[in-house]
Design brief:
The chain has 338 residues and is α/β, with parallel strands linked by helices. The chain folds into 2 domains: 150 residues, Aspartate/ornithine carbamoyltransferase (Rossmann fold); 164 residues, Rossmann fold (3-Layer(aba) Sandwich), CATH 3.40.50.1370. Helices cover 35% and strands 15% of the residues. Helix 6 packs across helix 7, helix 6 crosses helix 12 and helix 7 runs parallel beside helix 8. Strands 8-7-6-9-10 form a 5-stranded parallel sheet, with helices on one face. Strands 3-2-4-5 form a 4-stranded parallel sheet, with helices on both faces. The structure holds phosphoric acid mono(formamide)ester (CP). Phosphoric acid mono(formamide)ester binds next to helix 3.
Length: 338
């Protein structure tokens, strides 16, 4: 990919070297993300952060990433606070907002909507999640986390990874983007764990097999997590079901807690989840009793969102090589918890 000025809509636009470049750039963002240094490399630039679906991590971390590079953020949250509620089209919205912004991040409940918006935008657009389709920046931060977690356990590289993806694989867009991303690597063993009705879309399962990966499909949690490096748990995507009652049929089917982890997982198995985890009693896919487990990487994973999103902005706006030139140490007390 030629990054400067590019939209980031889906994972298929990337080749493996692009991912290396994003990860290398993300590594260089660490002192800024950890608030040891500040940079003003995007001084004067504006991010249009448009979220038409609920979000905590993606919206705030994209905003923080832009602020940490010295830029400013303008936001819209929910249809009700946007003129889309008055019937304005995505085309008109894109034409207008791209006049106010240097880059736009958008989340929208319909698959394909961000691509439609980007086609009318005069500035680069990043997909913050379009329906059940894709969530590319999440997949990038997930893979960045996998790389770092394996490295900290003495293993280099993604090739040869063993990963169990668990839960709502039909509607889970993070799983869709991560599956596409894994197709760029070699010799992966992917264990797909879901109810039959919530299986990974066939096209993605085929893509994984065509990439030469070993794919195992099951609806049994315990056997799926025995011999994997990564357990990637996901939430039932209630908002994609016709009713809450239909989502309830699947909620709580795959519960990982410390007892299950101790009995079935290898000692260093990393636990990931794109979050939010559903902590209600009827779901509880990742129990709170895992919170002190050092292999629970979910909050390191969320922290990494800032690094990866800073990298995307730096590459798209073509300032990756200028970040340090516009930097200084911070003035305030900086001992942090990263
Ligand atoms: N992982 C993720 O997309 O979280 P949010 O919905 O909070 O943005």
């Amino acid at each position: 990919m030629h990054f400067p000025g590019s939209h980031i809509i889906g994972i298929d636009a990337f080749i493996r070297e692009d991912i290396d470049r994003i990860f290398h750039t993300a590594d260089r963002m660490r002192p800024y993300a950890h608030r040891e240094r500040v940079t003003k490399v995007l001084d004067g630039a504006i991010l249009g952060n448009m979220f038409f679906e609920p979000s905590t991590r993606t919206r705030i971390s994209f905003g923080c990433a832009f602020n940490l590079l010295g830029g400013e953020v303008r936001e819209t949250t929910g249809f009700e606070s946007s003129a889309i509620a008055k019937g304005e089209s995505l085309y008109d919205t894109a034409r207008v907002l791209s006049g106010y912004s240097d880059v736009i991040v958008m989340r929208h409940p319909q698959s394909g909507s961000v691509a439609e918006f980007a086609a009318a935008s005069r500035v680069p657009v990043i997909n913050g999640g379009d329906g059940a389709n894709e969530h590319p920046s999440q997949a990038l931060l997930d893979l960045y986390t996998i790389r770092n977690e394996l490295q900290s356990r003495g293993r280099d590289g993604i090739d040869g990874l063993r990963i169990a993806m668990i839960g709502d694989l039909r509607y889970g867009r993070t799983v869709h983007s991560l599956s596409r991303l894994l197709c760029l690597y070699r010799n992966i063993h992917v264990v797909l764990v879901s109810p039959q009705e919530l299986r990974l879309p066939e096209s993605l399962e085929v893509a994984l097999r065509e990439a030469g990966h070993q794919v195992t499909v099951t609806d049994k949690l315990e056997e799926s997590i025995r011999k994997v490096d990564i357990v990637y748990s996901t939430r039932i995507q209630e908002e994609r079901f016709a009713s809450r009652e239909e989502a309830d049929l699947y909620r709580g089917k795959f519960r990982l807690n410390q007892a299950v982890y101790t009995q079935y997982c290898e000692p260093n198995t990393v636990i990931m989840h794109p979050l939010p985890r559903d902590s209600r009693a009827e779901a509880n896919e990742l129990d709170n009793d895992l919170n002190e487990n050092p292999n629970l990487a979910i909050f390191r994973q969320a922290d990494n969102g800032v690094l990866v999103r800073m990298a995307l902005f730096a590459l798209i706006l073509d300032v990756a090589d200028q970040v340090d030139r516009h930097a200084r140490d911070v003035n305030w007390y900086t001992e942090r918890r990263f």
